[in-house]
Every structure is written in C-alpha cells, then in structure tokens.
Amino acid sequence: MALVLALDVSSSVDAREDKLLRDGLAAALLAPEVEAAFFVSADPVALMAFEWSGRGHQTDLLDWVLINTPADLEIAADGLSRSQRGASGQPTAMGHALGYAATKLQDAPVCLSQTIDLAGDGINNESFGPAGAYATFPFEGVVVNGLVIARDDRAVQDYFQTHVIRGPTAFIEVAQGFTDFENAMRRKLLREVFTQVLGRNTSLQRVPG
Q1: What's the N-to-C CA distance of the chain in angstroms?
Q2: Whether residue 117 has pLDDT greater than 50
Q3: Which neighbouring-strand residues pair with 189?
Q4: What phi and psi values does residue 121 have, to the nearest 5 degrees?
Q5: What Rg do the C-alpha atoms of the chain give, in angstroms?
Q6: Which residues pair with 6 in a beta bridge?
Q7: Are 22 and 131 in contact (CB under 8 A)?
Q8: Which of 55-64, 166-175, 180-189, 194-203 is predicted with the least confidence, judged by mean pLDDT?
Q9: Using CA atoms, how far apart are residues 35 and 28, in angstroms rounded to an integer?
Q10: How confident is the model over 169-178, as a mean pLDDT?
Q11: How many CB atoms lie within 10 A of CB 206?
C-alpha cells in the first residue's frame, strides 16, 4: 500500500503541540506491533509525509520511501522526529491539503492500494473544503482516514466523519488531546495497515492502547 501521512500545523497548533505530533508519529511507527504489521505481507508499504496548514502551505517531511526492512522504518521515523515546522500562524485549508496528498499519490510507487491519513484538530476555514478537493483532484480508489485531535466537543469529530473520510473502509481515530496523539496514531496505523495490506475488512477496535 501507498500511505500518505498529513499533519496539521495550522495556527491552532502551538510549538509544544507540534513537537508532540512529530514525536508521536515517529514513536507510533516504531511501536513493535506497528512494525510487525508493516511486515505481515511480502509487499512493502510505501510511506510519505507532509505538514499542512494554510492555502499553499504544504511541506514534505518524508519523500516516498519503500519500507522493506525495519531499518527503513527506523530511518523514516528518525527523519520525522527531526523535522522542523515550516510555517506557523496559518489557517486550516483542509481541501488544499487533501488535494496536495492526492497529487503526491500520483508519484507514489505502484501499489495495490492508496491511503491518505489526515490528522487535525479543526475544520476547514480557508478556501474550498474536502468536497471541493474530492470533486477536483484524482481520488479514484483512494481511501481517506482521519485522526481527530479532540478538544472540548465533538464538532471536529463530526466534521471529519461527515466531510473528510472517504472510501468503503474509511474510519476516524480520536486522540484525546495532543498528548494522546501517539496512542491514537498507533491504533490507526495498526488498523489501516492490517486492513489494506491483508485486504480484509476486519475491525481492530480491541487493539491494545
């Protein structure tokens, strides 16, 4: 599978929270159960990652890499943890982020499935939203999952559920604040890698975490 990881670094995310996102993603990728999931199939997972915020503010954190060995996963995680924020004080242009992710998938290695992970703590507030992206960019056969960083109510979670996720196996995972991001990302990676790589529509709601 080809997997795009998209991290929200808009104005609602402060410097401490941004660090929790990067370190949390890196740690989730290196969790033993996630590493095992990456290698249950003989076919490698292709990874890329970028940060997003306002219109035109998308910065690659990890170029496409085939995860053939645990060492490949360690190198990818190390690069993500060392990455630095490219922009701050920007709005949340979610449609542009999704469009950028779809475009990046056009350059991915040939894979049996394509998935976008959109992580964020807010809803679209600049330019076109997810519906505009899905109508404009190449999303045929692409699954879009969401990782919601919850705040005080369910508004963002409901928005992701209604407007963001896409595809028959799509789902959202919820982090209870930025300190829970690593746990939520680990659960989400387990669920989608097993589902997409093994081609089974299995619910992994009971994954420890």
Answers
A1: 24
A2: yes
A3: none
A4: -120, 10
A5: 15
A6: 50, 118
A7: no
A8: 194-203
A9: 9
A10: 96
A11: 6
